[in-house]
Amino acid sequence: ATMEGIYRRRAVWAHAKKSMLFASLQDEAAQELLKQAKLRIAAAGELICREGESLPDLILVRAGFLRVSRRFREQGERVLVYFREGDVFGGLEALEDHAIPYTVQANTRAELIRIPGQALRRVLERFPQARESLRREVLGAAQAIPLAEGSLEQGLPRHPQIENTTQPGPS
Question: What pTM was estimated for this model as a whole?
Fold first, then answer.
Protein backbone atom coordinates (compact mmCIF):
# COMPACT_ATOMS: atom_id res chain seq x y z
CA ALA A 1 0.00 0.00 0.00
CA THR A 2 1.23 3.49 -0.82
CA MET A 3 1.45 6.28 1.74
CA GLU A 4 -1.46 8.04 0.03
CA GLY A 5 -3.50 4.84 0.14
CA ILE A 6 -2.80 4.47 3.86
CA TYR A 7 -3.72 8.14 4.45
CA ARG A 8 -6.98 7.76 2.55
CA ARG A 9 -8.02 4.59 4.40
CA ARG A 10 -7.19 6.09 7.81
CA ALA A 11 -9.01 9.32 6.93
CA VAL A 12 -12.16 7.39 6.06
CA TRP A 13 -12.10 5.30 9.25
CA ALA A 14 -11.23 8.23 11.53
CA HIS A 15 -14.06 10.35 10.14
CA ALA A 16 -16.56 7.51 10.34
CA LYS A 17 -15.91 7.09 14.06
CA LYS A 18 -17.08 10.70 14.61
CA SER A 19 -20.02 10.58 12.19
CA MET A 20 -23.55 10.48 13.57
CA LEU A 21 -24.46 8.38 10.54
CA PHE A 22 -22.08 5.57 11.50
CA ALA A 23 -22.69 5.93 15.23
CA SER A 24 -26.31 4.96 14.58
CA LEU A 25 -25.29 1.69 12.88
CA GLN A 26 -24.15 -1.54 14.46
CA ASP A 27 -20.40 -2.14 14.07
CA GLU A 28 -20.65 -4.89 11.48
CA ALA A 29 -22.91 -2.82 9.21
CA ALA A 30 -20.65 0.25 9.54
CA GLN A 31 -17.54 -1.80 8.74
CA GLU A 32 -19.22 -3.28 5.67
CA LEU A 33 -20.01 0.23 4.36
CA LEU A 34 -16.54 1.53 5.12
CA LYS A 35 -14.89 -1.25 3.14
CA GLN A 36 -16.56 0.23 0.05
CA ALA A 37 -15.93 3.89 0.95
CA LYS A 38 -13.55 6.03 -1.10
CA LEU A 39 -11.95 9.33 -0.16
CA ARG A 40 -12.18 11.96 -2.89
CA ILE A 41 -10.37 15.29 -2.83
CA ALA A 42 -12.29 18.08 -4.58
CA ALA A 43 -10.59 21.34 -5.61
CA ALA A 44 -12.18 24.71 -4.83
CA GLY A 45 -14.79 25.42 -7.52
CA GLU A 46 -15.14 21.76 -8.54
CA LEU A 47 -18.68 20.59 -9.32
CA ILE A 48 -19.66 17.62 -7.16
CA CYS A 49 -23.18 17.05 -8.54
CA ARG A 50 -25.69 19.01 -10.62
CA GLU A 51 -29.37 19.53 -9.87
CA GLY A 52 -31.55 17.01 -11.70
CA GLU A 53 -28.78 14.46 -12.25
CA SER A 54 -28.36 11.09 -10.63
CA LEU A 55 -26.16 10.90 -7.53
CA PRO A 56 -25.60 7.21 -6.94
CA ASP A 57 -23.52 7.65 -3.76
CA LEU A 58 -23.96 8.70 -0.16
CA ILE A 59 -21.42 11.45 0.55
CA LEU A 60 -19.98 12.52 3.90
CA VAL A 61 -18.07 15.77 4.10
CA ARG A 62 -14.78 15.08 5.91
CA ALA A 63 -13.30 18.56 5.48
CA GLY A 64 -13.98 21.78 3.57
CA PHE A 65 -17.07 23.75 2.60
CA LEU A 66 -19.51 22.93 -0.18
CA ARG A 67 -22.04 25.37 -1.64
CA VAL A 68 -25.53 23.96 -2.16
CA SER A 69 -27.68 25.84 -4.67
CA ARG A 70 -30.86 25.44 -6.67
CA ARG A 71 -32.45 27.15 -9.64
CA PHE A 72 -35.78 28.85 -8.98
CA ARG A 73 -38.07 30.03 -11.73
CA GLU A 74 -38.54 33.52 -10.28
CA GLN A 75 -35.22 34.05 -8.52
CA GLY A 76 -32.66 32.23 -10.66
CA GLU A 77 -29.94 30.28 -8.87
CA ARG A 78 -29.89 30.72 -5.09
CA VAL A 79 -27.52 29.38 -2.46
CA LEU A 80 -29.55 27.27 -0.03
CA VAL A 81 -26.98 26.25 2.54
CA TYR A 82 -23.32 25.30 2.90
CA PHE A 83 -22.23 21.78 3.77
CA ARG A 84 -19.25 21.43 6.09
CA GLU A 85 -17.44 18.75 8.05
CA GLY A 86 -19.86 16.15 9.35
CA ASP A 87 -22.64 16.83 6.85
CA VAL A 88 -24.11 14.03 4.76
CA PHE A 89 -25.86 14.26 1.40
CA GLY A 90 -27.04 12.08 -1.46
CA GLY A 91 -28.24 9.28 0.78
CA LEU A 92 -31.93 9.58 0.02
CA GLU A 93 -31.20 9.79 -3.70
CA ALA A 94 -28.84 6.79 -3.51
CA LEU A 95 -31.35 4.71 -1.53
CA GLU A 96 -34.38 5.57 -3.63
CA ASP A 97 -32.70 6.22 -6.97
CA HIS A 98 -33.99 9.81 -7.30
CA ALA A 99 -32.36 12.73 -9.09
CA ILE A 100 -30.65 15.14 -6.72
CA PRO A 101 -32.75 18.34 -6.27
CA TYR A 102 -29.79 20.73 -5.88
CA THR A 103 -26.29 21.48 -7.16
CA VAL A 104 -23.24 20.97 -4.93
CA GLN A 105 -19.95 22.69 -5.67
CA ALA A 106 -16.77 22.79 -3.58
CA ASN A 107 -16.39 26.29 -2.12
CA THR A 108 -12.95 25.37 -0.76
CA ARG A 109 -10.73 22.33 -1.16
CA ALA A 110 -12.84 19.51 0.28
CA GLU A 111 -12.38 15.91 1.33
CA LEU A 112 -15.42 13.76 0.61
CA ILE A 113 -16.10 10.18 1.63
CA ARG A 114 -18.19 8.47 -1.04
CA ILE A 115 -20.13 5.32 -0.23
CA PRO A 116 -21.59 3.68 -3.33
CA GLY A 117 -25.38 3.38 -3.31
CA GLN A 118 -25.04 -0.30 -4.28
CA ALA A 119 -23.02 -0.95 -1.12
CA LEU A 120 -25.61 0.96 0.91
CA ARG A 121 -28.47 -1.13 -0.46
CA ARG A 122 -26.49 -4.37 0.04
CA VAL A 123 -25.80 -3.52 3.69
CA LEU A 124 -29.45 -2.71 4.27
CA GLU A 125 -30.42 -6.10 2.83
CA ARG A 126 -27.92 -7.88 5.09
CA PHE A 127 -28.72 -5.76 8.17
CA PRO A 128 -32.42 -4.90 8.00
CA GLN A 129 -32.31 -3.50 11.56
CA ALA A 130 -29.89 -0.82 10.29
CA ARG A 131 -32.45 0.41 7.75
CA GLU A 132 -34.42 2.59 10.17
CA SER A 133 -31.44 4.31 11.81
CA LEU A 134 -29.74 4.92 8.45
CA ARG A 135 -32.97 6.17 6.90
CA ARG A 136 -33.55 8.52 9.87
CA GLU A 137 -30.04 10.03 9.52
CA VAL A 138 -30.32 10.38 5.74
CA LEU A 139 -33.82 11.87 5.93
CA GLY A 140 -32.76 14.32 8.63
CA ALA A 141 -29.92 15.53 6.42
CA ALA A 142 -32.20 15.85 3.38
CA GLN A 143 -34.91 17.73 5.30
CA ALA A 144 -32.37 20.28 6.56
CA ILE A 145 -32.04 21.72 3.03
CA PRO A 146 -34.67 24.39 2.21
CA LEU A 147 -35.77 23.35 -1.27
CA ALA A 148 -38.94 25.44 -1.63
CA GLU A 149 -38.73 29.08 -2.72
CA GLY A 150 -40.60 30.32 0.37
CA SER A 151 -38.26 28.54 2.78
CA LEU A 152 -35.39 30.84 1.81
CA GLU A 153 -37.07 33.87 3.34
CA GLN A 154 -37.59 32.03 6.64
CA GLY A 155 -33.86 31.55 7.11
CA LEU A 156 -31.70 28.52 6.63
CA PRO A 157 -32.16 25.67 9.07
CA ARG A 158 -29.12 24.16 10.73
CA HIS A 159 -28.20 20.56 10.08
CA PRO A 160 -29.13 18.00 12.74
CA GLN A 161 -25.70 16.37 12.39
CA ILE A 162 -23.95 19.63 13.27
CA GLU A 163 -26.18 20.41 16.23
CA ASN A 164 -25.61 16.95 17.70
CA THR A 165 -21.80 17.16 17.65
CA THR A 166 -19.79 18.47 20.54
CA GLN A 167 -17.01 19.90 18.40
CA PRO A 168 -17.08 23.65 17.89
CA GLY A 169 -17.00 24.81 14.29
CA PRO A 170 -17.66 27.84 12.16
CA SER A 171 -21.29 28.90 12.07
Answer: 0.73
